[in-house]
């Protein structure tokens, strides 16, 4: 007996049959005696349909710039949030037809308060004084994910994928015992199974590892939702909504690290193709040059990821290489051109055909030799490393994108991730 | 310079191009210096799509009756109201792209308060303290029609077609000078132009006449919206949203009667095929029998319209004929069968192949001979009258549906409605 939050993404509620399947998963938890809040996304495809309507009108331009009516994020939010509104109502109906008391809750009804940064709002506060007693009275709360209300009484949205975050935040606010994220995969894997068929589902993974994997390209959970769960020590279970009724569906538990996790040196291999590499040529090698580059990027709203500065040469100049998100490349290049004389470099090279491959594991804190194993495995396959970045629990390398699959397979094999056996655990 | 409410139905906002056309109509009023609130329906087809989703889930039945989760009107409302939510946001964007300050208002944001009769709620109160100052400050208010919020904080809807009513109610609350109802016809006609090509658009029509016409089958305006406008003496203009930009679009003004209207004997001919006729055979002719029949119908939720009692016969029994809505026929018949011994009759005949044809005009108050002209015109075409009902400003007859078009044409011609010339007037 506990209180749990269950979250279902767009593919899990894609049509009426999927919504019925979700209602059966919810019923199982209710019949087990749990108090249940369910967070739902829009039916898959629906958000895209609504965004396309907005974009088409937004593109209308008449007369001079001044006549434009300005930003439209507030209306975007009101329009797009209707997708989750529909799903929450439909699931409430499906539950009632299974004899379960349920009602939908929209962001403004809870209320889930956010700031005014429409279309990418951050949660300020979740009121539990209405929804909490409703749960205690035995009603399932079906919550429209991804949305809240700003303090001027308008609908706000958390940005695409914000449903994970709102589910975890709701679980924190409701003092839930666990947040179950249902998705189209059955857990967190040692790496992408499309590249490595031997990839293994992890039974447990530490918050810190999950945070690194999510940041490094694993798309199962959003970074913000993992951060939030870690801060409040709320276990997250990742599991599939596509399982046949009645089949075991253990998923992966994301929780605080324990001893068994620390025995693993590496937990997973992640990769991200959304990278672009920029090299500034013959940069004047004096103090403050790197800071100037970083400031130019930050002023342009571009996040710099990996940085490496080349060896100083006799003419007191060096090359500096760094990576940015692929979609920020154009912005970054034009900002650099503008600041060229101020920063002081002679040329720019760039390459968007690069991939960041990373190994992650909290065991790296107490095990040495991970870097050496990694570099040897890559060298053995003839893969050249362009840039290296490390943290306490991860090592990332930038390589030519053509070698992505080869590198991921080599690392998965070098760290024997297919063979590792973690103890089977059940969720709390 | 005044304050006006403009209302657009589903076909007027059916797609992005129609929404752009609406934004131009709104712009014209704004540039003329008016304060404007716009009430919009869902894009046509959208409400049907959402209702179909609800109906499919609602039809799910598992186990015994007791396990059903009960009524779902609250969730129906939350789902279906999303249609207007989308349109209001889209029109606000289209207006901003024309350089006009605008924002959407949902029912709960105004708030437009209703009772808890979900899916057929009645308006309790419209708060003007937020939307009024926004209008005064020069913002167009784009209001999602058809929806409100009940006092338990749930979304409610006014039932299908409730957008007219919410537009008129909003105009009353905002002390607007006029409510313009844009639709797919360009005004109120002397009769259905599909039946009588010579039918003429009326420049003005009295509230009382419009109320009768709407009740008698004319589908342009909802009965409740006309009642409300009449009670508050709010002029309604009915006009087309399909006019080419810049073309005159005078429509029909619905307002309090004036002298010119009184000179017309008959303003229009209406018909309704949604009728069914029930005859109780050999009813015991003693006091209270009609009341018993009416009570049986009222208990079953069936509204009785026209009633006629046949001539008493020697055996102290009579036939009684009355009409009900066609969709209520089955309910009415089974209620009558149940009450057969209590009421005391020997048999039931029924016929759903009947049409009610009516002539309406406030001039009938002071002109005699309307009934005679009507009955003669029908007799001349060999049309048999089954039942007659009259009020101060209308005469209705029930006839065989096969004669509908013939009767409408005969009456339109007999009262010379094609030739009548009303003075051209402009809206206030």
CATH class of the largest domain in chain A: Alpha Beta
Let me know the average pLDDT of chain A. 89
Determine the CATH superfamily of the largest domain in chain A: Acetylglutamate kinase-like
Percentage of β-strand residues of chain A: 25-35%
CATH architectural arrangement of the largest domain in chain A: 3-Layer(aba) Sandwich
Number of helices of chain A: 14
Largest sheet of chain A: 8 strands, mixed
End-to-end gap of chain A: 10 Å
Can you summarize this structure?
The first copy, chain A, is α/β, with parallel strands linked by helices and 428 residues long. The first copy, chain A, has helices spanning 16-31, 46-58, 73-80, 82-96, 131-136, 162-173, 207-215, 223-231, 259-263, 289-299, 329-338, 340-343, 370-380, 404-414; strands at 3-8, 35-40, 102-105, 112-114, 123-126, 140-144, 147-150, 155-157, 178-183, 204-206, 236-240, 252-255, 268-284, 304-309, 317-325, 347-360, 387-391, 394-400. In chain A, helix 6 runs parallel beside helix 8 and helix 7 (207-215) runs antiparallel to helix 8 (223-231).
Structural account:
The structure is a homodimer of 428-residue chains. By secondary structure, chain A is α/β, with parallel strands linked by helices. The first copy, chain A, has 2 domains: 3-55 and 76-257, Acetylglutamate kinase-like (Carbamate kinase), CATH 3.40.1160.10; 269-414, 2-Layer Sandwich (VC0802-like). Chain A has helices spanning 16-31, 46-58, 73-80, 82-96, 131-136, 162-173, 207-215, 223-231, 259-263, 289-299, 329-338, 340-343, 370-380, 404-414; strands at residues 3-8, 35-40, 102-105, 112-114, 123-126, 140-144, 147-150, 155-157, 178-183, 204-206, 236-240, 252-255, 268-284, 304-309, 317-325, 347-360, 387-391, 394-400. In chain A, the strands form 3 sheets. In chain A, strands 3-6-2-1-9-11-12-10 form an 8-stranded mixed sheet, sandwiched between helices. In chain A, a hairpin with a 2-residue loop joins strand 17 and strand 18. In chain A, helix 1 packs across helix 4 (82-96) and helix 7 (207-215) packs antiparallel against helix 8. Residues 64-68 and 422-428 of chain A have low confidence and may be disordered. Chains A and B meet through helix 1, helix 2, helix 3, helix 4 and strand 3 of A and helix 1, helix 2, helix 3, helix 4 and strand 3 of B.
